[in-house]
Every structure is written in C-alpha cells, then in structure tokens.
Write the structure tokens for this entry.
Amino acid sequence: MAQKIIKKLTYGWRLLATGFSFFSFGLIGLLLRFLVFPVLSVLPGNRLQRISRGQRVVHYGAYVFIGLMHRLGLMTYEIKNLEKLNRPGQMIIANHPTLIDILFLISRIKQANCIVKESLWRNPFMRGPILNAGYISNGDPKKMITECVAWLQSGGTLIIFPEGTRSVPGKPCRFQRGAATIALQANKIVTPVTLSCYPSTLTKAEPWYQIPYRRFHFTMDVGEDIALDEFITIKPKSIAARRFNQFLEDYFTQQRGL
C-alpha cells in the first residue's frame, strides 16, 4: 500500500514538474526576446557577430532548460563522444525521437544554426531566439538549401533533422532528401548523432502531460564522420542525393536497432 502511494506521489510530482519545465521554457523565451536580445542588438558588430552572440545566448538558455529537467528528476542523460562536436563547418545529422532533441543538441553545441518550421516564426515564445540566432526557415525549400550550404561553407555549424518531424517509435527512419542535398553541395564535415529516449515520451503522438511511468533516460551518441567522396562523384546530383539519403536512412535505422 505504501509503495502505491509513493508511486502516485512521485508520478504527481513529475507531472507538476513537467508542466513547470515547459512554463519555464516559455518564460525563458520571453525574457530573451524582450530583455536580453534588445540589449545585445545595440552592441557593436556586423550581422554575423550579432548572430554569433544570439546563438551563444540560446545555447546557454537550452543548457539551463535541460539542467532544470534533470534536477527536477524528470530525466537522466548520457552523452557519448561529445568531443567530436563543436567543429567549424560541421553538419550534424540526427534522428528526432522527442520534442526536446534540438534543445539537447544546442545545449551541448556553443554556436549552431538549425532549420526551423515556418510556423514557429510566429510563435511569441520562440520568435526572439529564432530571429536573433539567425535560424533558417523551411518556408522556401530552395532558399533553405542555399542558406544552409552558405552557412556551412562559411565555417558555421548546422543541426538538421532529415525526418522533418518527430520519429514514429518502432518504425524505420524516413528522411526527406534536403539534408542529403545540403551535405553534398556543401561538402564539409558530416557527423551523425543518434538520439534515443526510454521510456518513450514527448513524441509527436503524445501531449506533454502524458508522461511515462518513470523518469526517462536520454542518450546522445555522436558517431564517426561520414565520408562523402563516393557520393559526390555520382552523376547526376539528384541520384547522388537519393543514394546518400538512403545511406542515412539505413544508418540511423540500424543504430536504433530496427
């Protein structure tokens, strides 16, 4: 009887803490938009310097948020081969099991760009960080690819989820071809990062309040760089992108044990 009561109390605490975490996320976004970024905008520097400052601020904000979830007892986490990240001109390709994937990656990468859904540009909690960090919209696919390639070739770091949305648990990866096209056109460092979460939570099919029976464990495993030579030589470019995209799908499906 006592164990059941403890389990219910623990579950209730984690549910309350989950709600508080997402409230804090929105609050951090508003504080950055109305207090921090206006101050940064008046500091001297060109556009790239302002974006660099913005990305670093978002990095610290994500670090605080992930730390909050950990300290509240909502999650544990494990990072493998973190030293392979934070390199200039690095394209990080990851699968997308949960809602917090991008925040976890940004919390470990000091300066990174990413592709953002066009609808999020109108989100009052996220608009400030998105604009000031120079994130790239997916509204115009051709423009998106051009901007991503230019960012990588200028020495910037880019995070991309080729699935375009969160993974379906237990299903093989299905990637959009944009990530493969960007990687081949930029011809820079390509590093795969496999993300996993157990028990499954914060998937596309689950609302935030549908929490698992215990705190979840999040794993980030940074793989070896992927050589592009054999794909770049393939003609035409559309076939090269298709084959590289298939390679990525197979890689992540295998990493997930499916």
Q: What stands out?
A: The longest strand covers residues 189-198. The chain has a mean pLDDT of 93. The first helix runs from residue 2 to 41.
